[in-house]
Amino acid sequence: MSEFLTVSRDAHDRLVSAAYQARGFTANESAEGAKLAAEAARHGIRTHHALKALHLDHLFGSATGGCVPGAEIEVVPTRFAGSETWNANRKLGQSVAYRAIDRCIELADQYGVGQVAVDNAFHYLWGGGYVMEAAERGYVAYTNCTSALAEVVPFGGKFPTLGTNPHSWGFPTQDAVGFPLVSDWATSVVAMGRVQALKREGKELPPNAAVDSDGQPTTDPNQVAALLPFGAHKGYAMCLLNELYGALIGGSLPTLRGRAAQAPEGEKTTTAFYFQVVHPEAISGGAFARGRDQMENLKAVLADIFGHGNEGCILPGQFEAEARQIVNEHRNSPSVVAYVVYNEGWGERALADTIRVGQAVKDLDPTRLVNTHSGYNCCQSLGSPGNGDMDD
Predict the structure, then answer these.
(1) Roughly how many angstroms between the first and final C-alpha of the chain, as a whole number?
(2) Judging by DSSP bridges, how do beta strands 271-278 and 140-145 pair with one another?
(3) Distance (Å, rounded) from C-alpha 243 to C-alpha 164?
(4) Measured between alpha carbons, how far is 312 from 308 in angstroms, rounded to an integer?
(5) 9-188+229-282 has which fold?
(6) Are 163 and 270 in contact (CB under 8 A)?
(7) DSSP secondary-structure letter at 68?
(8) What is the DSSP letter of 280?
(9) How many angstroms separate the most distant Cα atoms in the chain?
(10) Per residue in 306-357, pLDDT tens?
(11) Which residue, 36, 121, 199, 388, is most buried by CB atoms nearer than 10 A?
């Protein structure tokens, strides 16, 4: 039996919208909050779905003054035609982000590149959802933000002075590979939302992802006091980039973000966003080899990367995209009783990938049984994933 309660998209959106409206948000803001939560859940993003969004709003948002329902965005005057700077006035982050990516697309259509910097913001949750929208419409898109709290210890440090600070890229690769390529990651080993999910599920963190209150490594989500950057000094550098963007936009000191009660008079406690959209034609040199056009060249480059014996390599999000395609194609078929994600050793690369993709299928369609790996005990399989509804 599935551990999830399944609701239709319509029921989900009505419920989440009602929860936001009960807190004073407008109908449009509530619909945008529900949309992002539904898209996160649909893509298997368990760290930034409706539970996370509403919990975040309760702790740091409308209940405490960190987010202002019905706030109006103020466009700050600038001399740069392809750029805009917004004062979000603590408006709901998802609402601001959807508007910002749309505005960036409008600017990119006119100037080739469009960017929007947002000050006085409230966390927008899953950045991948916004760049995916742009990529699906044919654009290259990027966003970063400073996270709601400083929860990450700098490389070599002891005290959390950085956010989990995600980066999100989207590329219009549908013609080349069948889906837009989206690379979206927090710069910590895991996001704090993942820690909270593991705590609810009674599961442990991966090693070297977090420290306790004494600064010692822990895998117990109940003991986590701070997170660690992924990739040691390299992840730390990428985490730092968001703080630099935020500082130039007008963001607050990291250790004061989301902590209004601790902030000295005159200091800010809000987050900052940055969005950029590029029209592919704006970066085209036009001199593609052998008469290829731009998208044909993109496809040829990817084919070259994954040729030469690299045919077994994957693109970011490929497993999830393929799983999503299969589930979407068969979700409404009454004859489907269960999904078998892997059979014996065929196509298995790493046990961690097996577990992740199996969980993605469970998240995408919790109404069906999932056998993450059938025949895991033979044929060069890598072992039991332990997260299916059955083992064989």
Answers:
(1) 16
(2) antiparallel
(3) 10
(4) 10
(5) Ribosomal Protein S8; Chain: A, domain 1 (3.30.1370)
(6) no
(7) -
(8) G
(9) 65
(10) 999 998 888 887 877 888 888 888 888 889 898 888 888 777 777 767 777 7
(11) 121
Strands of the sheet containing 74-76, edge to edge, are: 74-76, 83-87, 113-121, 271-278, 140-145, 167-171, 181-185
* Beta carbons within 10 angstroms of residue 315's beta carbon: 18
Q: What is the pTM of this model?
A: 0.86
**Would you state the structure tokens that stand for residue 151, as one six-digit string?**
């929860």
Give the β-pairing of 140-145 and 167-171: antiparallel
For tokens 């056998």, the residue is: 371
Q: What is the pLDDT of residues 123-160, one digit of tens each?
A: 999 999 999 999 999 999 999 999 999 999 999 888 99
Could you tell me the two tokens for 126? 């899953």
pLDDT score of 1 more than 60 = no
Distance CA 373, CA 388 (A): 8
For residue 184, what is the DSSP state?
Answer: E
User: Could you give the CA distance from residue 70 to residue 42 in angstroms, rounded to a whole number?
Assistant: 27
Closest CA to 69 of 15, 21, 123, 126: 21
pLDDT tens digits, one per residue of 42-83? 777 878 889 999 999 999 999 999 999 999 999 999 999 999
Buried b (16+ CB within 10 A) or exposed e, 133-149: bbbeeebbbbbbbbbbb
- The amino acid that residue 323 corresponds to is A
Residue spans per domain, the chain: 9-188+229-282, 318-374
Q: Extract the tokens encoding 49.
A: 């779905």
pLDDT level of residue 165 (50, 70, 90 thresholds): very high
The 3-state DSSP class for residue 227 equals strand
Tokens representing residue 264 in the block:
């000295």
